[in-house]
């Protein structure tokens, strides 16, 4: 992304501050469960390890290198996330999941506020 960051700690810090909000789709490919994540800065490509319930991002593709099909996938994933939020229960057991989903949505929309419970504006 040409951020001018040289130190690994600066790169990792930048990722967790600005790029860790993502929504994912699992894609079966060559007997593997691959992942396509959409973040505010681009796409995260990786693998889902079902036994460990663990997702590993292996590649990042900035928005300037994406193609039309990825844009369509992004629209679908964000739309699905928005529907989940609209149906969410913001009280009781569902409150934390709804709050996290709202933060991810706001991050993807470029409107994230770093305040717990900020939700969609």
Q: Outline the biggest β-sheet.
A: 4 strands, antiparallel
Find the structural class using helix and strand composition: alpha+beta
User: Spans with pLDDT under 50 lasting ≥5 residues?
Assistant: 111-121
Q: What's the N-to-C terminus distance?
A: 28 Å
The fraction of residues assigned to DSSP E strands is 25-35%
Helix share of residues?
A: 25-40%
- Strand and helix order: HEEEEHH
**Biggest sheet, spatial arrangement of strands:** 1-2-3-4
Q: Count of helical segments?
A: 3
Q: What best-fitting shape do the alpha-carbon axes yield? A: globular
Number of domains: 1
**How many DSSP-defined strands?**
4
CA gyration radius, whole angstroms: 15 Å
Mean pLDDT across all amino acids: 75
How does this structure look, described?
This protein is α+β, with helices and mostly antiparallel strands. The protein has one domain. It has helices at 8-19, 68-87, 95-108; strands at residues 23-29, 32-39, 42-49, 54-62. It has a four-stranded antiparallel beta sheet. Helix 2 runs antiparallel to helix 3 (95-108). The protein is globular, with a radius of gyration of 15 Å. The model is unreliable at 111-121 (pLDDT under 50).
Give the helices and strands, then pairings.
Elements: H1 8-19, E1 23-29, E2 32-39, E3 42-49, E4 54-62, H2 68-87, H3 95-108
Antiparallel strand pairs: 1-2, 2-3, 3-4
Helix pairs in contact: 2-3
How would you sum up this structure in a few lines?
The protein is an alpha+beta fold.
Index terms:
121 residues, alpha+beta, four-stranded antiparallel sheet, 3 helices, 4 strands, disordered C terminus
């Amino acid at each position: 992304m040409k951020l001018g960051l040289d130190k690994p700690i600066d790169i990792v810090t930048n990722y967790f501050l600005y790029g860790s909000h993502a929504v994912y789709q699992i894609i079966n490919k060559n007997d593997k469960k691959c992942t396509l994540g959409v973040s505010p800065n681009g796409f995260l490509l990786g693998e889902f390890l079902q036994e460990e319930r663990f997702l590993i991002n292996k590649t990042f593709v900035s928005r300037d290198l994406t193609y039309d099909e990825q844009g369509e996938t992004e629209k679908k994933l964000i739309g699905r996330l928005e529907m989940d939020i609209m149906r969410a229960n913001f009280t009781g057991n569902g409150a934390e999941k709804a709050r996290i989903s709202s933060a991810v949505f706001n991050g993807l929309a470029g409107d994230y506020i770093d305040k717990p419970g900020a939700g969609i504006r």
